[in-house]
């Protein structure tokens, strides 16, 4: 009958059953393990009197040495607090040291006799057991440990040789202060690395073998270093490292050695504990101890913790090394860190008598990917509402870890943590729950979404539409991921003196830039590196590649690749050579680009209808709802804003120049009088604006335009102040005020205003009231006039004013199916946003709020509305293109709109008003054959009836032609280019606007990639050359780009403007194909009229204008 090991009635184990003591070495007698008998007569002789005296003196000297800091502190006159602080620091250091030594002893004891300790603690916590006890699929590998133990001394010899002969010379050569650096001792010790368990994952892939090694190293390693010049010694004596190392053998090949490469990485960050010696003993001081271990752990994670991995190729010329080193992830997890509740209070006041709250923030970690939320002050139930996206490579295996801390000035207090295997997110698709915090109290609310990687673009429109309704901060949600495998380059240009460059590569998408390593002295570098980018909209984003010398000063080549090309490529992949521009004739770069669409595939999620589809926004054809109660008031079909809605105007403020400003700059203690660096500050209607600084000028000329939305409330004033920019405090140069009522009544004001509170100075302002008009007939003329009067130093001028009245919403989704939300809404146009009030706990809120927005380009901009619940996330969204308002009656839409999640509707009114400038210095006349001539003539009569203040600068009169007129001449055989050329007298600049081209010539199979180059002859240098952006594969490109040359009018009349339309001849070539050109003699053009006109393109030999 078998007896349980824990049975108390079992007889005492026989000597055979007991774990045997370590056998004696052959050269040691058996009595080495026996203790001397005190009763025996053969006792060793006692210590001599001299040795006793020496021991007493040594002990006394050590204790006396402790009093030296006390004596020194008293001699110097320091407070006793310094002594107490030093004593506390020493006690803390001693405690950390003792804990580390005790931990090392316990770990060594466990590894020395694992089976006995395991049997003894079989009924203890599973965390104390090796993996092969808790998990039956984890196998022991004692045979492997025996091999490692036998190899360990030889590995120590190799490490000593590596450190002494390779690492030490490199350190000595890196810094002059380290020229005496040396390794005085390198010993790996007698305790080898142990593999506690091995787990093989079958069925993952037929082309790879995947193993998990549970490693544990409790070593007596000793490495000592010394810098003799500074008598500095440091080192490591003892170390612990525990973790799970994943080893992947891939690819499997049909030739020796069967395995092509070995990849190794830690799935999770391993635990590390180091026992320091020498001067590095300071790292065991409390605070520094955890910091030093964290720094070293971060260094290990930088190349050995997912998504980083160590790749060791076993065969030469291995293909796709970069892809093996950085494979595509299994998926993406979108982590919504929503809130927490019931957190513990850590802040105490009055020495703990008064309990405060906490200032919580959260750390979200998946492998090496770490995100930190913002701090919520004085709150035990914080609402974060932040979103992060992480790549996942190993499922199962990787974990999502969230740690919550209380922010403090010294050390942040730990509030709790939670961990979750990513496999549960993959299984659920969407996981929305409150997770309890371990090691503390409270819960954290997470919404986790698994995003699959699709190798085609069929779902891209759905993904983009869904993302518009996702409120995400600090970054917008991603629609795709791009992996760039940078392989090699060929024939890069040499540096000056025919020196080989040290090339590196910068890859950028919008404001995200990543860099490769630099390779020294080669113009054919091989990088074999991988990079990843999250993409918000791959249809419009571009990958910018810059090949540079490692100094970053010399550019060796460049490449701009629209990511839209990948959307039409097979499996969203490009694997090819790319020709570099601004480089050598044969310089090229080999890259593999792989894009994957991020798709949320879950039955709980419904993608919204795509705008523009029938019925997407139109609720007019809804069937009437049945079963309505007579007590319920009828649902309104239109909004009911107050009488002031839509009555706003726009004030355009043109800050021109100033004269006779006072000089504030002084030099040499005031002996030398300088000038001033003036700028202007404007304040009106709660908004403030600031001009640029003009350096050292008492008569500055700014020529900047600002726009602000104003109402007719009486008593408002435009406050203008002029300052001198200084390093410390800006000096006051004067102020003036203008009554807003005066400008609104007159419509226009152009005056020199005397600056007050200063001895001298005056300011030239031009103010114009722009009243919105509910007609789109003048929009094209307004856009063209704005492009003519636009100054380079100002923001783009507004062409329209959008007024939005949001009244209410209905049928919003409930929280967890039963509780109503507390909704609020945000209205966004471009960078401008308006947030409504929050209505508490209702699915049918009434906001009754309005907002106005300046619109630059009504044809392309849109109104974005998001409805969110306080603490519950997005409830729905709406995207309304302003182009729908342009075709609506009176440029207004007033009805119910369906939110894109299919649940919930909003009632709003959106109306657009075109801003027509009456005093821009540009008058619009249409040709007699124009279809809109009657409407324009009526507007001109209206303008003529208004009071007009003549500008001091001569007015420019422009004849705006209509490109779609039926009487226009047909295009020539090479096509036409549309230009506006005029002279801006106020700025003393020649201005040319390249509008578009049409009917360009197509020489090859594909349409050209046209751009327009302008050159002011007879100068052919770069100073007068201008170039538009390049348009892809079109015969009718639209540019609408403005260019300026600063020169007097008489000189402009002696010049000729050379316009060339060109295209890249091929993707692999730097040559440019000339599609046609035209040369304009500016003396033959009325530059004061500035007509927008079509010109026929000619061959290179025929340069005349038409």
TrEMBL record:
Compartment annotation: Cell membrane; Endoplasmic reticulum membrane
C2 domain residues: 314-435, 462-582, 630-753, 779-901, 973-1095
Entry's transmembrane regions: 70-93
Entry-linked SUPFAM superfamilies: C2 domain (Calcium/lipid-binding domain, CaLB)
Segments of this protein annotated with the region Disordered: 1-48, 616-645
Compositionally biased spans, kind Polar residues: 622-642
Extent of Low complexity compositional bias: 1-11
Family the entry assigns: Belongs to the extended synaptotagmin family.
Name assigned to this protein: Extended synaptotagmin-1
Organism: Ceratotherium simum simum
């Amino acid at each position: 009958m078998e007896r349980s090991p824990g049975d108390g009635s079992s007889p005492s184990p026989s000597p055979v059953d007991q774990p045997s003591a370590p056998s004696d070495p052959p050269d040691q007698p058996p009595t080495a393990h026996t203790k001397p008998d005190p009763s025996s007569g053969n006792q060793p002789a006692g210590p001599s009197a001299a040795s006793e005296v020496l021991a007493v003196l040594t002990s006394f000297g050590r204790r006396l040495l402790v009093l030296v800091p006390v004596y020194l502190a008293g001699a110097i006159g320091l407070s006793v607090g310094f002594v107490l602080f030093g004593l506390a620091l020493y006690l803390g250091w001693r405690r950390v040291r003792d804990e580390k030594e005790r931990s090392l002893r316990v770990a060594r004891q466990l590894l020395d006799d694992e089976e006995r300790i395991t049997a003894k603690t079989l009924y203890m916590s599973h965390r104390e057991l090796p993996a092969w006890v808790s998990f039956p699929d984890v196998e022991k590998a004692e045979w492997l440990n025996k091999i490692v133990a036998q190899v360990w001394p030889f590995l120590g010899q190799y490490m000593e040789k590596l450190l002494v002969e390779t690492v030490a010379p490199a350190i000595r050569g890196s810094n002059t202060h380290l020229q005496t650096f040396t390794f005085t001792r390198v010993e790996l010790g007698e305790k080898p690395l142990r593999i506690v368990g091995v787990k093989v994952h079958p069925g993952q892939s037929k082309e790879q073998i995947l193993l998990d090694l549970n490693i544990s190293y409790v070593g007596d390693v000793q490495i000592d270093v010394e810098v003799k010049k500074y008598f500095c010694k440091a080192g490591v004596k003892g170390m612990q490292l525990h973790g799970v190392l994943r080893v992947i053998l891939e690819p499997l090949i049909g030739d020796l050695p069967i395995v092509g490469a070995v990849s190794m990485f830690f799935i999770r960050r391993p635990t590390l504990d180091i026992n320091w010696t020498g001067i590095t003993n300071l790292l065991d001081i409390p605070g520094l101890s955890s910091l030093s271990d964290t720094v070293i752990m971060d260094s290990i994670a930088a190349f050995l913790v997912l998504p980083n991995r160590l790749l060791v190729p076993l065969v030469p010329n291995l293909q796709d090394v970069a892809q093996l080193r950085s494979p595509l992830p299994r998926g993406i997890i979108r982590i919504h860190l929503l809130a927490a509740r019931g957190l513990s209070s850590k802040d105490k006041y009055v020495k703990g008598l008064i309990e405060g709250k906490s200032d919580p923030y959260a750390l979200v970690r998946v492998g090496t990917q770490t995100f930190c939320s913002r701090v919520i002050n004085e709150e035990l139930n914080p609402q974060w509402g932040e979103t992060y996206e992480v790549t996942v490579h190993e499922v199962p295996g990787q974990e999502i870890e969230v740690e919550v801390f209380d922010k403090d000035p010294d050390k942040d207090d730990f509030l709790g943590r939670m961990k979750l295997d990513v496999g549960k997110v993959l299984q659920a698709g969407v996981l929305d729950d409150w997770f309890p915090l371990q090691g503390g109290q409270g819960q954290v609310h997470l919404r986790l979404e698994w995003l699959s990687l699709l190798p085609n673009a069929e779902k891209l429109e759905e993904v983009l539409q869904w993302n518009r309704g996702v409120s995400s901060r600090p970054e917008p949600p991603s629609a795709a991921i791009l992996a760039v495998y940078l392989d090699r380059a060929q024939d890069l240009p040499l540096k000056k003196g025919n020196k080989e460059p040290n090339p590196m590569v910068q890859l950028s998408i919008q404001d995200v830039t990543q860099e490769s390593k630099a390779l020294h002295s080669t113009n054919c570098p091989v990088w074999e590196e991988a990079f990843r980018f999250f993409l918000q909209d791959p249809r419009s984003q571009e990958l910018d590649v810059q090949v540079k010398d490692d100094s970053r000063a010399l550019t060796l080549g460049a490449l701009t690749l629209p990511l839209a090309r990948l959307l039409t490529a097979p499996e969203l992949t490009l694997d090819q050579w790319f020709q570099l521009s601004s480089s050598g004739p044969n310089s090229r770069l080999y890259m593999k680009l792989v894009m994957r669409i991020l798709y949320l595939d879950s039955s709980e999620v419904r993608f919204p209808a795509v705008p523009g589809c029938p019925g997407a926004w139109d609720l007019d054809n809804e069937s009437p709802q049945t079963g309505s109660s007579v007590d319920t008031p009828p649902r309104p079909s239109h909004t009911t804003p107050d009488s002031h809605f839509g009555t706003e105007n726009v004030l355009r403020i043109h800050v021109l120049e100033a004269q006779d400003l006072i000089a504030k700059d002084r030099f040499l203690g005031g002996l030398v009088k300088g000038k001033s660096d003036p700028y202007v500050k404007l304040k009106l209607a709660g908004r403030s604006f600031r001009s640029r600084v003009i350096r050292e000028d008492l008569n500055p000329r700014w020529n900047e335009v600002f726009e602000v939305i104003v109402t007719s409330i009486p008593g408002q004033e435009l406050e203008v102040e002029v300052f001198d920019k200084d390093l410390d405090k800006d000096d006051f140069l004067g102020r003036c005020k203008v009554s807003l009522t005066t400008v609104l009544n007159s419509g226009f004001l152009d005056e020199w205003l005397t600056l007050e509170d200063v001895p001298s100075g005056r300011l030239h302002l031009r103010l114009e009231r722009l009243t919105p008009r509910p007609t789109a007939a003048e929009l094209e003329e307004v856009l063209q006039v704005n492009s003519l009067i636009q100054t380079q130093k100002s923001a783009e001028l507004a062409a329209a004013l959008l007024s939005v009245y949001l009244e209410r919403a209905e049928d919003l989704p409930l929280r967890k199916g039963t509780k109503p939300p507390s909704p609020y809404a945000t209205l966004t146009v471009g960078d401008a946003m308006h947030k409504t009030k929050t209505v508490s706990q209702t699915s049918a809120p009434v906001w009754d709020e309005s907002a106005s927005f300046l619109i630059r380009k009504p044809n392309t901009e849109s109104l974005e509305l998001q409805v969110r619940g306080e603490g519950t996330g997005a409830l729905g969204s709406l995207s309304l293109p302003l182009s729908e308002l342009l075709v609506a009656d009176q440029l207004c839409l007033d009805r119910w709109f369906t939110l894109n999640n299919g649940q919930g509707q909003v009632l709003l009114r959106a109306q657009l008003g075109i801003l027509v400038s009456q005093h821009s210095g540009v008058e619009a006349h249409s040709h007699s054959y124009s279809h809109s001539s009657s409407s324009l003539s009526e507007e001109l009569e209206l303008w003529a009836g208004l009071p007009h203040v003549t500008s001091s600068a001569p007015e420019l009169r422009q004849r705006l032609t209509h490109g779609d007129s039926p009487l226009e001449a047909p295009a020539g055989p090479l096509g036409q280019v549309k230009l506006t050329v005029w002279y801006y007298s106020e700025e003393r600049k020649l201005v040319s606007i390249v509008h578009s081209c049409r009917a360009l010539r197509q020489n090859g199979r594909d349409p050209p990639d046209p751009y327009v180059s302008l050159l002011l002859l007879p100068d052919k240098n770069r100073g007068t050359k201008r170039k538009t952006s390049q348009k892809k594969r079109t015969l009718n490109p639209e540019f609408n780009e403005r260019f300026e040359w600063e020169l007097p009018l008489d000189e402009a009349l002696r010049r000729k403007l050379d316009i060339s339309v060109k295209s890249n001849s091929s993707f692999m070539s730097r040559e440019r194909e000339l599609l046609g050109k035209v040369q304009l003699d500016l003396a033959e053009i009325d530059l004061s009229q500035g007509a927008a006109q079509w010109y026929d393109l000619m061959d290179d030999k025929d340069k005349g204008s038409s």
